[in-house]
Specification:
Layout (H helix, E strand, L loop, with lengths): L8 E6 L8 H5 L5 E7 L2 E6 L4 E6 L5 H11 L3 E5 L11 H21 L4 E5 L2 E3 L2
Parallel strand pairs: 1-5, 5-6
Antiparallel strand pairs: 2-3, 3-4, 6-7
């Protein structure tokens, strides 16, 4: 092995688009999650009734910020998935499909931009560039 260090893979990381449409307006009923950017590099997620869900930082949507953090931590590859609250199992099937496609497309673009650093997963399957 000649002193090579093993590949370091983080298998549990979440990613979201920086913004997404108003899903309540898009689908005509509530229960969805919204995002509000509060200051550079920070955002809050809310249920669409205004209830705070969680705070997130730009490493959740900005792949360059994420890559820099990975490099500092010595992580070679991350397996990316969406934040589970976005699965929306309770939604009407056609709306859940639309949202899943939106989130999968976002994941796929990130993997395609950095195919040696990211692997994407959604719903139990994996994809890479």
């Amino acid at each position: 092995m000649g002193g090579e260090r093993p590949l370091r893979v983080d298998v549990h990381t979440h990613i979201l688009p920086e913004t997404w449409p108003d899903l309540k307006a898009r689908y005509g009923y509530g229960g969805w999650v919204t995002i509000k950017h509060t200051k550079p590099g920070h955002a809050d997620m809310y249920k669409d009734d205004g209830t705070f869900f969680r705070a997130i930082r730009s490493d959740c949507w900005d792949l360059e910020v994420r890559l820099a953090a990975m490099d500092r931590a010595g992580i070679d590859v991350q397996v990316l998935s969406t934040v589970p609250v976005m699965f929306s199992y309770w939604a009407q099937p056609e709306h859940a499909l639309d949202l899943a496609m939106m989130l999968n497309d976002h994941l796929a673009k990130g993997v395609a931009r950095h195919p040696t650093r990211f692997i994407g997963t959604f719903g139990g399957g994996f994809f890479s560039a």
